[in-house]
Every structure is written in C-alpha cells, then in structure tokens.
Amino acid sequence: MQSFFKKFGFILNIVVAIFLLLAYLAPFIPPDIFWPLSIFGLAYPYLLALNLVFLVLWVLQRSKKLLLSLIVILLGFIHFNDFIQFHADKKDNGSGIKIMSYNVNYFSYDLRNKQPNSNKIVGYLKTSSADIICLQESYIRRKGDQSPEGIMNVLPNIKFYQLAHSVSFGGPVTFSRYPIVNMGEIRFANTSNMVIFSDIKVSNDETIRIYNCHFQSYQIKPEDYTVIESPTSGSNRLKLKEVLELGHKLISAFSIRAFQARKVAEHMKTCPYPVVVCGDFNDTPCSYTYRKVLGNMKDAFVESGFGISNTYHGILPSIRIDYILHSNQYHSHNYQRDRVAFSDHYPISCVLEHDQ
User: Fold this and answer.
1) What is the number of domains present in the chain?
2) CA distance linking residue 292 with residue 250, whole number of Å
3) Is residue 89 domain-resident?
4) What domain range includes position 338?
5) Is position 114 within any domain?
6) What is the C-alpha separation between 119 and 35, in angstroms, rounded?
C-alpha cells in the first residue's frame, strides 16, 4: 500500500481535487442544460473528505503536495460554510418569530418502532411553541384530530392555516398564529410537488410572505433496490439495471428541480413583502436548486446553526435538504434541528428578528 501510494497517490489526489472543483460549479450551471455537474455537487461532502484525507497525509509526510488539496479546499470555502458551522447563535431571551419547517411524510410511521406516529408528531408540534409552522407531505383529512383543523385546535397560539392538495390525500400546510391575509399556490406540471405561499400580517405595520416548498424528489425507495439495501447481493445484471434506473431518476430529478427553482425565484421577485422560504428542497447546499432559490437571501443554518444539521433521516446518505431562508431585513438565531425519528426528515426551526 505504501509503495502504491508513492507511485499513484498524487495522481489520485489530482483526480479528487478536479472532482471537487467540478462540484463547486454545480450551483451555477442549470442541470437541465448540463446535468453531470449536479452529480459532483451531490458528492461534495465525500469529495471534500477525500481531499482532507490527502491534505493530512501530505502534512504527515511534510510534502509540498499538500498545497494542491489545501488550495482547492480554500477555493470552495463558501460551500464548506454552507455545510458545516462551528458557532451557534443562541439567545435565551429576546423577541422574534419562531418558524418551523417539517416534512412529516404523511404522518405514516415511526421509523424506529414502525408504529403510527401522527399523535407523536402533533405532540411534538404542540411543545415546539412555533409561531409559524410549514409542513410538507401532510396527510390532509376533512375532520378529526389529525386534520388541519384538529391540529390547529391543539397548538398553542395557532389560529390560522392554509393548505393545498398535491395528491388526493395530502399536501403542504402552513399554520400561523398571525392572520393570513392572502394566499396562493405555485403548481408544476406533471408532478405532485408544489409550493404554497401565505402573506402573514405579523404586526399592524408589517406583513411577510412565507413560501412553503416541496421540490421534486428522487423517488428512490431504498427497499426497492438491492444495490442500496444489500450491495453484495443480487446478480450483476440486476445491479447494472438498478444502477441505470437510479441514475435516470437522479438526472430527471435534477432537471425538474431546476425548473421549479427558477419558477419560485421569479415569483419571489414580484413579492412586495419580506420573504421567508421554508421546505424540503430534496437537494444539498451545493446544488443549483438551493443557490437559485437562496439568491441574495440568508440561510438560517449558516447564520445561527451548529454542526452539519443533516435533515434527512433514512437509509440513503444523511444530508441537509430542508431549509429556512429569509430576506436580509432579518437575522436568525436559535437555529435547531431536532433528532425526532417520527418521519424520514428531521424538523428544523429558528427565530427571526429584525436587524438593528
């Protein structure tokens, strides 16, 4: 191994450095024009980790070759900052609006105990004391304890809600303690994913617009693919078929989300109010979707989070794909990702206050 590394180590380092540079381009090149860069963007955390490994190895050998990975990592510091935070902005006191985003996976089951979890989710929402709650993939009933009306009635301070059906049995719901004075929908052709927006009057002289987003998913169920569930089992032909099918789903989702992100970004340009964007983007911070919707806004995690805040809870790699973004008139504090295993996503929240 030592002999192999001496001969080919730097060549491998060059390759992973180039791949990392390609990942940096993913947020700026529309995947419906050139999709391969999105693959590198999706792999960004692993490419970064490989370059860090090479950096450490060259440091241990006191070799100038360390400069390659060091320079490449520094060139992409903006992306590093989007993935990892080391200083949380916590406030014990202070006023502000607490906002939550949570993909509840249709209240389907407790991922650990395989039990119905609707009561657990409602109980969690009740204890959160959030002022505005954006749910994606919410199971929408006409009546009952788990209907939007029933949920609203048990949530402290929540008095208003907006919903839309993305499929016959569910869709996004936005709950608010403040009056919703206007509402609308952004629907996309040939998909059940959608966005709703609510103009919420948070005070006598201030209205904000909340976008509750659910962008195109990969539609990959790990249990349907042996190459994910058990990479060493199954025939080579089956594995090849599954890899090709997975690749097709990835490419298709990249392209569809690019269109959806542009449509939402264009819609936000016409908004007369400060904007808060919540939801499940189904994409990482090193993606065209995230960068297009973010624009010149702020990311609550980058402002006040800590760690990596992975929000997807499943067999596939755990990454941050749920976001709270907001206009520059505000700053966030107390960003939180709660590790409650009631869905295939974790809920996120923050408190927004006006910049002084």
Assistant:
1) 2
2) 19
3) no
4) 97-354
5) yes
6) 41
- Per-residue tens of pLDDT for the chain, all 356 residues: 666 666 788 999 999 999 999 999 999 999 999 999 999 999 999 999 999 999 999 999 899 999 999 999 999 988 998 999 988 888 876 679 999 999 998 887 555 555 556 788 889 999 999 999 999 999 887 777 778 898 999 998 899 999 999 888 889 999 999 999 999 999 999 899 999 999 999 999 999 999 999 999 988 776 656 656 566 566 677 778 878 888 889 999 999 999 999 999 999 999 999 999 999 999 999 999 999 999 999 999 999 999 999 999 866 666 899 999 999 999 999 999 999 988 889 999 999 998 76
Q: Which DSSP helix (H) or strand (E) runs through 103?
A: strand 97-103
Q: Residue 332's domain is classified under what CATH number?
A: 3.60.10.10
Please answer whether residues 350 and 300 qualify as being in contact, where contact means their C-beta atoms are separated by less than 8 angstroms: yes
- Check: CB of residue 239 under 8 Å from CB of residue 276: no
Q: Is the entire prediction scored with pTM above 0.85?
A: yes
Question: Within 10 Å of residue 320's Cβ, how many Cβ atoms?
Answer: 26
Enter the tokens of residue 282: 């189904």
| 203 and 345 part of one domain | yes
Buried b (16+ CB within 10 A) or exposed e, 302-315: bbbbbeebbbbbee
